[in-house]
Design brief:
By secondary structure, the chain is mainly β. The chain folds into two domains: 182 residues, no CATH class; 101 residues, Immunoglobulins (Immunoglobulin-like, Sandwich), CATH 2.60.40.10. 0% of the residues lie in helices and 36% in strands. The protein starts with a strand and ends in a 7-residue tail after the last strand.
Length: 303
């Protein structure tokens, strides 16, 4: 029996809070915060700073390029709601992207940890950009706002006032870290780590003589929390089961129960004795969700 634990980019579950992007006169279009795939518009409450992504242009069911930003290059930043305190920690150059056809199509940052992107499912060819870079959750800094509120800003590169090779820049009254409100778009969002949840993916596989892997179908897994509460789950035709709404900071044990399962194995293969196996873990805010693979192997097979 071989058990693997790996990190997978599963988005943590988030509550929705209605929000509206600002409509400043100097820059057309709109921005909003979303999940990694861009399927949520103004989903402005998140359970981790690592879950917040930037999008622009049309949301779901909107006409193509509706409310899209003008084509060109942009910088973004994260501040407290007033804009007075800069919370982004990387240089401005590293917080940049390009818009084509009213849609964010490329992250162009350099000079710091990468801001990961996700596919924009509403606008093919577009991407979403995570506001925090790969150092998350240390980037961006916690807000001083008691309600956990943040503000994201976007401004054209040509409208930025300051030195983009620096993290911060004092640009005078009415200017916020190089961003002029009349030439920028903003959107507010909240991060509430106290309610952070995540999804767990578990898979059962069998190694065949030809080296292929076949799924364990209808395979039972029991998920038990630190209070001893156990719930049963069964794999689908791909050998997987996804369990969501698990809570950050809680210890979980995932155990397989082969005695109560029905599965098929192709080929004339003798597997090792199938014994119940378990894995325990605790997930923390800002970490990827957890994926676990339970794999049976034939005697003398690859280790």
């Amino acid at each position: 029996m071989k058990t693997k634990i790996f990190a997978i980019p599963v988005l943590t579950c988030a509550l929705l809070l209605s929000g509206v992007s600002s409509l400043t006169a100097g820059l057309s279009g709109a921005i909003f915060t979303t999940n990694s795939s861009g399927t949520v518009v103004n989903g402005n409450q998140y359970d981790s700073p690592c879950s917040v992504y930037l999008n622009g242009g049309p949301g779901p069911h909107a006409p193509a390029h509706a409310a899209g930003l003008p084509d060109g290059d942009y910088y973004f930043q994260v501040t407290d709601p007033s804009g007075a305190t800069l919370l982004s920690t990387d240089i401005v150059f590293n917080r940049s992207f390009h818009v084509t056809g009213g849609i964010i199509v490329t992250y162009t940052g350099s000079g710091g940890p990468v801001h990961v992107t996700g596919p924009n499912q509403n606008d093919p060819g577009g991407v979403t950009i995570r506001l925090a870079n790969l150092s998350c959750p240390s980037d961006f800094l916690p807000t001083s706002n008691n309600g956990g509120a943040y503000k994201v800003w976007v401004t054209p590169v040509t409208s930025f006032v300051g030195d983009a090779s620096k993290v911060d820049y004092s640009c005078g009254s009415g200017c916020f870290h190089g961003f002029v409100p009349s030439a920028s778009k903003t959107d507010n969002f909240k991060v509430n780590t106290a309610s952070a949840t995540f999804c767990l993916t578990v898979q059962k596989l069998f190694l065949q003589a030809d080296g292929s892997l076949t799924p364990g179908i209808s395979w039972e897994f029991d998920v038990t929390d630190s209070q001893g509460v156990m719930n049963q789950f069964f794999t689908d035709t791909t050998g997987q089961v996804v369990v969501c709404d698990l809570v950050a900071g809680t210890s979980y044990t995932v155990a397989e129960d082969p005695a109560s399962t029905v599965f098929s194995i192709t080929g004339n293969v003798t597997l090792t004795t199938i014994l119940p196996t378990s894995v325990s873990f605790t997930w923390g805010v800002g970490q990827p969700a957890v994926g676990i693979v339970f794999e049976n192997q034939q005697p003398g097979g690859p280790q």
